[in-house]
Design a protein that fits this description.
There is one protein chain. By secondary structure, this protein is an alpha+beta fold. The protein folds into 2 domains: 3-70, Arc Repressor Mutant, subunit A (Orthogonal Bundle); 73-214, no CATH class. It is built from 7 helices and 10 strands. The strands form 4 sheets. Strands 1-10-6-7 form a 4-stranded antiparallel β-sheet, sandwiched between helices. A two-stranded antiparallel ribbon has the order 2-3. A two-stranded antiparallel ribbon has the order 4-5. Helix 1 packs across helix 3. It is elongated, with a radius of gyration of 27 Å. The chain starts with a helix and ends in a 14-residue tail after the last helix.
């Protein structure tokens, strides 16, 4: 096999994968070689088994480095939440991309990033302490974050007084009978900030387990995750 035939075969494989013909630079990047080195490969009258073995090991090394660099990427950290009601119900989303009727470019871009990726997210209280850590593996970060934002968890509770909501006069004497009680609340009543990270699919479960186990407490997550 000549070098030109060998590279042509790689080009065809990449074309089927990408849906378009790859550039010479793209092929070189995939193999972990320079464009000049790729040209040298194409100029070879014969590709030996030893040369192919060396290239395979090179590709393996480059792939491992590429995976490490792309395995974890911050999307947003300690983003201040501005809860917006969804429809006429009691659910909220963490923010709306439209402000005063106009699309806010930063918020729109952030929402698209959260919609496009899987990964890990953390809700924080007003002091920056973690309230909840979770993963988005089967659906987008945007969808998972907003689902959890409205989830009623027994661990999330505060002390409140049940004041009347109907229209009636205020009477100081009524306060004598009002009890301070512990009530369950949703995350949207406690969380002030959220952080989100794009994580390689194969690492999402492990990273979530690490976060929960490394900062174990009764508030972060009720169930202590295991390393899979």
């Amino acid at each position: 096999m000549t070098g030109a035939q060998f590279i042509a075969s790689i080009r065809k494989r990449m074309e089927r994968e990408l849906g378009k013909q790859p550039t010479k630079a793209a092929i070189a990047a995939r193999l972990g070689v320079t464009v000049q080195a790729l040209s040298n490969w194409e100029a070879r009258d014969e590709v030996t088994a030893d040369q192919m073995a060396g290239l395979i090991l090179k590709v393996e090394s480059v792939s491992a480095n590429r995976t490490q660099l792309s395995a974890l990427r911050p999307i947003v950290e300690f983003f201040e939440l501005t809860p917006a009601r969804i429809g006429s119900g009691e659910n909220y989303c963490i923010f709306q991309a439209k402000v005063d009727g106009f699309e806010h470019p930063y918020l729109l871009g952030l929402r698209k990033e959260l919609e496009a990726h899987h990964g890990i997210y953390i809700f924080h209280d007003s002091r920056g302490r973690a309230l909840y850590a979770g993963k988005a593996r089967s659906q987008s970060l945007w969808k998972e974050i907003n689902l959890v934002f409205n989830r009623d968890r027994q661990l999330q509770n505060i002390r409140r007084v049940n004041h009347p909501e109907r229209r009636q006069d205020f009477r100081t004497s009524d306060e004598l009978r009002r009890q301070i009680r512990t009530v369950n609340v949703r995350l949207h009543e406690l969380a002030t900030y959220v952080s989100a990270y794009e994580v390689a699919d194969g690492m999402i479960g492990q990273l979530e387990s690490l976060l929960i186990r490394a900062f174990a407490n009764d508030l972060l997550n009720k169930r202590m995750e295991n390393f899979s």
